[in-house]
Design a protein that fits this description.
By secondary structure, this protein is mainly beta. The chain is built from one helix and five strands; from the N terminus they run αβββββ. Strands 1, 2, 3, 4 and 5 form a five-stranded antiparallel β-sheet that branches.
């Protein structure tokens, strides 16, 4: 019998979260300050740097050039 290959994609209803221990360890690469997780936007927020670092497939992209500037 031929079996269809199994998909490794996450179901559409799956929500990604950031592990609390990882959030305690990670800091903003510019300010070395704490980050907050925005579960709606799927971003790590540095209030001091006014930057939002994206999460892609659950992996934080901690590059200032990839971050979105946050307006006041």
């Amino acid at each position: 019998m031929n079996e269809a290959p199994k998909s490794h994609a996450l179901p559409a209803a799956t929500t990604l979260t950031v592990d609390a221990r990882l959030l305690e360890i990670l800091v903003c690469p510019l300010t070395q300050g704490a980050l907050e997780y925005d579960s709606v936007a799927k971003e790590l927020i540095s209030k001091r740097a006014r930057l939002a670092y994206p999460l892609r497939d659950g992996v934080p992209i901690m590059l200032p050039g990839e971050a979105r500037e946050i307006a006041d």
